[in-house]
Design goal:
Rossmann fold, ten-stranded mixed β-sheet, five-stranded mixed β-sheet, 34% helix
């Protein structure tokens, strides 16, 4: 048992912040600590927490190096030279490991909708396990029955053990990628909700659990017992203390305000900034306004600062002092409950700010409560959005083709991002599906002028030939896999969003409270994406008596990007500048060289010299898989780094 009542324990704090899985129920989990240290672990050791067959296998898979690398797909990419969005095709376990080198601690938000249907034996993700791998992973004391159980677990979705073994290493990698003030949302249903909650409590720390959001999506009339009309979204922070220390506040905009602001602006322009007349017409407008606006009907006054309602200054109660009306110099006694402001100096400070208004009579002054100061509220844990809307919208996007079953609604995901994610955040979804997350990011950027970027990962899951999506892919010369739908949705959604952008119809030349009007333009909207395919990384193999190199990817630019990903110094979304075609490229002051046998001595020398020039010293990296170990390269071996 760990004593937390005594003075601060720095080691305990370090473990909680960096390795929360080793602390559970205020106890140190020795088997988990051994797994992190790479020591042999008995698969059958039990303790408090979520125990499942394959747990230590999954933990070891998290630590294994990926045998994949990325190949730039120029055909499927859009705006390849300018975009900062990424789409990685392939098993997300490999993709997350590749991303980890550069993006560890840099992702502000992760949203995932993992597969959680347990009614089928078909499971597309290729996680596997055998005795040879057990030895590599350092697992001990496994009997034949243990292997048999694990073999079953990794092959079927009907096993909770298999599903947990599948999701566990991916969530561990997700935690590595999150920034210290980052958050993760996980959509889940009743099949695995309880297990997922326990697993996330362990991985992220139960002290970082923020809440469980319930999305009501409408009735399901084919239900056998009860109509389950909701799904869950688990919500965790990487480090809730960091969010508190950084004074990050999450609030949701009250609906209907945008329309009120726009109407008030139009009335001001129409009435040549006559505030009284504009207020009178705003009162009339509310009678036929949309319902979401009518709930704010008391905000019907306008001045140069904004839209406000009038409230009695004594509504809350406070000081018992009297005040002199500055208009007629008459004394006004405090009401029976006292003034809202406890101290007289606070009262006059508020008056000087223009939020207290006296009249030329004996009545109490009024308090101006501005809508801009009261337009946000806490996000509620339960909300309704018809799940059918998402299917209808994606069908329209694909010209009437039903290309995806049960897609998530970009409106739901956009709502989460709008409240909990800052406007310049990097967002990751490693179960991209139909591309909802990317669509939501682009749509939200359009609406608020944000500069959010996304990284999507989607496995090339084959589409069955009897599905409409299969015919769509064939008719459009696309590979019949789910990632084709992901990418095509991003392309179509981005083009539709770009086509919808028009200048604001509101005349803002006389806008007296412009901060209350939504942005009318979007700066540098990014509707592009770089697509990368997952392929086997080069490796040495023995064929007969010969050592040969197995090498599937010999595309020059892809070799450069793989160095960028594996080194982790430069942002992989950047486009490398060509120095020597097919050989030498640069980003900033860093040089990347492939096919080095084609690089002459002068080019090597120039790269090394230029990388070392200036205040920001760069480096020279050479692709080891294409390096020629000749005299030229040997001459510079102290000045360059070979990358495999």
């Amino acid at each position: 048992m760990i004593d937390t009542e005594t003075s601060e324990n720095k080691l305990l704090n370090f473990l909680k912040e960096n390795y929360p899985t080793v602390i559970r129920d205020n106890e140190l989990k020795l088997d988990e600590l051994k797994a992190i240290l790479g020591l042999p672990v008995d698969e059958k050791v039990n303790g408090y927490g979520l125990n499942f067959v394959g747990r230590n296998v999954a933990r070891a898979k998290y630590a294994q190096k990926s045998e994949k690398e990325l190949h730039l797909n120029t055909v499927l990419s859009k705006d390849i030279d300018t975009t900062q969005n990424l789409v990685l095709k392939g098993d997300n376990l490999d993709s997350l490991k590749i991303l980890k080198t550069h993006y560890s601690g840099k992702i502000k938000c992760i949203y995932i909708d993992p597969p959680y249907n347990t009614t089928s034996d078909e499971f597309v993700y290729p996680d596997k396990f055998d005795k040879e791998e057990a030895e590599v992973l350092g697992l001990a004391n496994l009997s034949e029955s243990d292997f048999a159980r694990m073999d079953f677990s990794f092959k079927t979705k009907k096993s909770h053990n298999g599903w947990l073994s599948f999701i566990y290493p991916r969530l561990l990698l997700a935690r590595d990628l999150l920034s210290n003030d980052g958050v993760i949302f996980i959509s889940i249903d009743d099949n695995e909700q309880a297990n997922m909650k326990l697993l996330c409590d362990e991985i992220f720390g139960e002290e970082n659990f923020i809440g469980q959001i319930i999305w009501r999506g409408g009735k399901r009339n084919l239900a056998k017992y009860i109509s389950v009309s909701h799904e869950y979204i688990l919500f965790y922070a990487k480090n809730l203390n960091s969010i508190d220390k950084n004074n990050i506040i999450w609030r949701e905009s009250k609906i209907g305000l945008d329309e009120i602001y726009k109407q008030a602006q139009l009335l001001l322009v129409k009435n040549k900034n006559n505030f009284l007349q504009a207020s009178a017409e705003l009162k009339k407008w509310f009678k036929n306004a949309p319902e979401e606006c009518k709930q704010h009907e008391h905000y019907c006054n306008i001045d140069s600062t904004g839209v406000y309602c009038m409230d009695n200054v004594s509504r809350v109660g406070g000081g018992k002092y009297s005040v002199i009306n500055p208009i007629n110099n008459k004394e006004i006694l405090p009401p029976s409950r006292g003034w809202t402001f406890g101290k007289e100096e606070d009262f006059w400070t508020a008056y000087n700010k223009g939020i207290i208004e006296f009249r030329n009579d004996d009545k109490l002054p009024v308090f101006k409560r501005y809508l801009k100061d009261n337009e946000f509220q806490l996000f509620e844990s339960v909300f309704y959005k018809d799940r059918r809307a998402s299917s209808i919208k994606i069908k329209e996007l694909f010209n009437g083709n039903e290309v995806f079953d049960f897609p998530k609604d970009e409106g739901v995901i956009k709502k989460l991002f709008q409240v909990f994610v800052s406007s310049d955040s990097l967002i990751l979804d490693f179960f991209a599906g139909s591309g909802t997350t990317g669509h939501a990011v682009m749509q939200l950027n359009t609406e608020d002028g944000g500069n959010r970027k996304y990284i999507l990962c989607q496995i090339d899951e084959p589409i069955k030939e009897d599905k409409p999506a299969y015919k769509f892919c064939i008719d459009n010369n696309l590979p019949p896999v789910i990632s084709s739908i992901t990418i095509e949705r991003l392309r179509r959604a981005g083009e539709k969003i770009a086509a919808s952008l028009n200048p604001s119809a509101v005349d803002t030349s006389q806008n007296l409270f412009s901060e209350e009007i939504l942005p009318s333009g979007v700066r540098g909207l990014d509707i592009g994406f770089k697509v990368f395919d997952s392929v086997e990384a080069p490796r040495l193999a023995v064929e007969g008596e010969q050592i040969v190199m197995k090498y599937e990817n010999n595309d020059t630019l892809s070799r450069i990007y793989n160095m960028i990903f594996s080194i982790g110094v430069d942002e992989p979304t950047q486009t490398p500048e060509t120095v020597v075609e097919g050989c030498v490229y640069k980003i900033g002051t860093n040089y990347y060289i492939t096919n080095s046998e084609k690089v002459n001595s002068d080019d090597f020398s120039n790269a090394i010299k230029n990388a070392s020039t200036g205040s920001a010293t760069g480096k020279v990296f050479i692709d080891g898989w294409t390096a020629s170990l000749n005299g030229t390269l040997q001459h510079y071996k102290e000045d360059v780094k070979i990358v495999f």
